[in-house]
């Protein structure tokens, strides 16, 4: 049975239900399967041994998501080779590639949860009513232990970029 968290957040002030567990600091990062493109998949294990900043956005084609992804792309250069920044949305891989090309985003890896919503359900960010992912940030260390979590209360708000980046820097 899938866990639902009614009223776990809002979209423009309207309550939404999140599907999946609430991940907490100290938890083992759940495995997931997402798409790099239409045929190539990626899993948590593909990033073994690296610090992972997972930036979750509803859609790259919206203002806050655009700014969030650009902000982490800018920060990537100062984080070093042991850190990977993953931006996960349910946008189709075609749309993600087009957006990255137009935005000049080349240091963040975009991954799509459009097929099975595996990431959304595993991390408790799948919005039942919209079938989008709730804006959130997860920092996972090289041993796949969650070290930082931010679930946004309101989907249209910005995450705490500095807190997430400080959490990553503390693990390098």
Automatic annotation (TrEMBL):
> Organism source for this protein?
Paenibacillus hemerocallicola
Q: Which reaction does it catalyse?
A: a hydroperoxide + [thioredoxin]-dithiol = an alcohol + [thioredoxin]-disulfide + H2O
Molecular function GO labels: thioredoxin peroxidase activity
Q: What class of enzyme is it?
A: oxidoreductase
Give the protein's recorded name: Thiol peroxidase
Q: What is known about its subunit structure?
A: Homodimer.
By sequence similarity, the record places it as follows:
Belongs to the peroxiredoxin family. Tpx subfamily.
UniProtKB keywords: Antioxidant, Disulfide bond, Oxidoreductase, Peroxidase, Redox-active center
Q: Which PANTHER family match?
A: THIOL PEROXIDASE
Q: Thioredoxin domain location, by residue?
A: 23-172
Q: Give EC number(s), comma-separated.
A: 1.11.1.24
Family annotation (InterPro entries): Redoxin, Thioredoxin-like_sf, Thioredoxin_domain, TPX, Tpx_CS, Tpx_Peroxidase_subfamily
Q: Which residues form the active site?
A: 65 (cysteine sulfenic acid (-soh) intermediate)
Question: Its function?
Answer: Thiol-specific peroxidase that catalyzes the reduction of hydrogen peroxide and organic hydroperoxides to water and alcohols, respectively. Plays a role in cell protection against oxidative stress by detoxifying peroxides.
Record-linked NCBIfam families = PRK00522.1 (NF001808)
Q: Which CDD domains match?
A: PRX_Atyp2cys
């Amino acid at each position: 049975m899938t866990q639902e968290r009614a009223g776990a957040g809002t979209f423009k002030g309207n309550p939404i239900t999140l599907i999946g567990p609430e991940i907490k600091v100290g938890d083992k990062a759940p495995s997931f399967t997402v798409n790099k493109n239409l045929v190539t998949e990626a899993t948590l294990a593909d990033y073994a041994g690296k610090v992972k900043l997972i930036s979750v956005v509803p859609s790259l084609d919206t203002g806050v998501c655009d700014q969030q992804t650009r902000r982490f792309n800018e920060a990537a250069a100062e984080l070093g080779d042991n850190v990977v920044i993953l931006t996960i949305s349910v946008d189709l891989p075609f749309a993600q590639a087009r957006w990255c090309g137009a935005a000049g985003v080349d240091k963040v890896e975009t991954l799509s949860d459009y097929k099975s919503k595996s990431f959304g359900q595993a991390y408790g960010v799948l919005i039942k009513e919209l079938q989008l992912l709730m804006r959130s940030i997860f920092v996972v260390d090289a041993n796949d232990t969650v070290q930082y979590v931010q679930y946004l209360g309101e989907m249209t708000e910005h995450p705490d970029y500095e807190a997430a980046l400080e959490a990553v820097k503390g693990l390098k």
